[in-house]
Amino acid sequence: MIPMAIPVQQPAKQPPLSWPATLAAxxxxxxxxxxxxxxxxxxxxxxxxxxLMLLALRLTGWRLPLSxxxxxxxxLALGFVVVGxxxxxxxxxxxxxxxxxxxxxxxxxxxxxxxxxxxxxxxxGPTGRSNSGALCLLSGYVFLTACTTDQVWPIRxxxxxxxxxxxxxxxxxxxxxxxxxxGAAWRAGAIAAALALGACxxxxxxxxxxxxxxxxxxxxxxxxxxxxxxxxSQPVLEATxxxxxxxxxxxxxxxxxxxxxxxxxxxxxxxxxxWGPALDTRHLALYPQATQGVPAPANALRITTxxxxxxxxxxxxxxxGLFLPPGEGLAVQQEPRNGGFHLHATVPxxxxxxxxxxxxxxxxxxxxxxxxxxxxxxVPPDVDPxxxxxxxxxxxxxxxxxxxxxxxxxxxxxxxxxxxTIHPGAGDPVSSFILARKAAHCExxxxxxxxxxxxxxxxxxxxxxxYAHEADGPGTILVRQQDAHAWAEVWLAPQGxxxxxxxxxxxxxxxxxxxxxWTRRATEWLxxxxxxxxxxxxxxxxxxxxGALSALVALYWGVKQIWRRLRRMRLETSGFTYAHSPDMDAxxxxxxxxxxxxxxxxxxxxxxxxxxxxxxxxDALPFxxxxxxxxxxxxLSANSRQDxxxxxxxxxxxxxxxxxxxxxxx
Length: 666
Fold this sequence. Notes:
The chain has 666 residues and is of the alpha+beta class.
């Protein structure tokens, strides 16, 4: 009999990381170092030290003691250093959760936790459990934080490499590696498949980089998005529509069941294809009638501004009452000349304003003074006289002002077509458009309608705003920048200013709007959820949030301790005992003999499972795991004994490597 002791199952060290897993983590660390940290800064030094620690763990096999609390001490020390180095980013709750400048700091924390998890010594157990799943998640999170950057080349280089190494490091792939014939071919195929997968993932990220960047830019911090929103300060009739168009969300209307014109800026002066006065030259006065801090009625129209819009407050022409929420830093100003409203906000979007139900008195004044009437009736001298004659011809059979307005609108709807572009030629562009009956965009139709109405003796003005039409749930309408539109307003007694849209139906936003892809809607939905969470967290201070997190950690630890105590008590009362019998000892001696005959004797201080993994004896893993489960589980059953005997007999029929001379002597 071979004189050797049966190995006692010691606390299991975390199995050493495979080289693919180690290289994948190092790739993530280096990418974060390149894209986030400043050269020579404390963050870069921390990442460099973490990389050295990871390499040392892989090369030396050193692990933290199990019961000394060393891993908690190291975790607290590294956390203190990282948080201290980035305290300016962690000081504001909204910033340290959502600002992209703070994402890298969380990546460094995840890198530190990765190293700690890789160095852990796990408690003994029947399954030889590992924390490979946590390591995969931490490594992926570090790489994800490294990708929150506007630097393209590091991600382009690192993505295929990282995903290839990550796939090769998966435990299932590592468990199927075989010695002998076929192993090299399997590894080559796995590497090729992993590289292909990495290239595909990178390609998908590159294809959808725009919506992903929009999600980060619009939801994870408060800086304005790159897309242009709002209306032009001074419309100029050109070959294409002058308002910027995009899918960027601008406004959200609640308690609105149908389509509506949202009036933004009105212009009353026209000269040589340009409307005025310019927005930045207008006189504004504080609007004292705005109700501050009083909730709007339940049926009130609620308009939420989602993006910067040059400070313009968009108002339906028939709206009454104006309600401002308390504590939002909002003030309303009115333009006496054309009845427009402007919102002075000291906070970034989103912010909401409430309007009363339709009725009188309307927010937009229904009166028309002599000076205003004169401006709204003026036809500049450079307008072709034939336009004036055409206006009289169109309205000659219309007995009332309302009938004349209808005749002008019908003239454009029945005789013109919509086009995104127009070439007006020399002279006054509106005269050329009307007389030649050219296809044009909405700015020309609105301008032509205003001039014909004025020539027919009706006060009119040019208006820009948004045409709201996109349903976004019951009673809710979403307005995008592509819904920018231009139309005319005509003054009709006794109701006052009335909307008149002369653009053919094919040229209004419902027909011209670009289809919103599902990826855009998905990112918008996620962005709304994040914005709601940001608003909720804004109610608390950093100390309150950290205190709540500490309480949750303490609660988790307490529940875990109670659960362990209850489980131990249940096992004690049920008479549970670990399986230990001469049969188990005999199986252990036979397995040790097989290891010695294979030239791979297990040291007494090393658990079997760790030893066979290091020696790549994957054929022995089923027996070792069954043996551990039986030894640390309930009493050994007959079926379990037969399974162990069958696995061990299979091993004894194979020999790995040459037999050592000592075995022959024995």
